[in-house]
Amino acid sequence: MSYNVKNGTGMDGRRDYDRTARVIAEEKPDVVALQELDQGTIRSSGRDTLQELAARTTLTGTYAKAIDYSGGSYGVGILSKEKPLSVKRIPLPGREEARVLLMAEFRDYWFCVTHLSLIREDSSASID
Questions:
Q1: What is the distance between the alpha carbons of residues 69 and 31, in angstroms, rounded to a whole number?
Q2: Does residue 14 contact residue 44 with C-beta atoms inside 8 Å?
Q3: DSSP one-letter string for 83-104
Q4: Distance CA 35, CA 4 (A)
């Protein structure tokens, strides 16, 4: 599953970690790629979006910071049934903001998450 959680904020502008976690849990995924996660920011009242979702879904959370943001950080993450055997954070090009690729190794596969730039040249360079 892949889900841009917008820091747990819904289309109605309300931050509701329970609602976001329900969307994930209803799909019963083995692994989830998450984009737009706040960790300790003013915007999220110092909360860790990934860990809020991990606790509510009973999945393991793995986070990769892309940028410092608003007193904390902002990045991507993975929720998974299994704890990753190893993880790798790879910086990617981004002119409007730094981007990152998070790779997690599991027993039978690798799983990756990123949030590509909207600038075509940067996205293309990241894919390479």
A1: 26
A2: no
A3: PPSEEEEEEE--SSS-EEEEEE
A4: 5
* Neighbouring C-beta atoms of residue 79, cutoff 10 Å: 24
CATH of the domain at 24: 3.60.10.10
Decide: helix, strand or coil at residue 70: coil
* Domain range enclosing 41: 2-127
Per-10-residue mean pLDDT of the chain, 128 residues long, equals: 91 93 97 96 94 97 95 97 98 88 97 93 87
pTM of this prediction?
Answer: 0.93
Q: What is the DSSP string of 63-81?
A: EEEEEEETTEEEEEEEEES
In three-state secondary structure terms, 111 is strand
User: In one letter, which amino acid is 119?
Assistant: I
Q: How many domains does the chain have?
A: 1
CA 119 to chain CA mean position, Å: 20
| C-alpha distances out from residue 25 to 13, 42, 81, 109, 111, Å | 21, 27, 11, 22, 19
The β-bridge partners of 86 are 105
Report the C-alpha gap between 23 and 57 in whole angstroms: 10
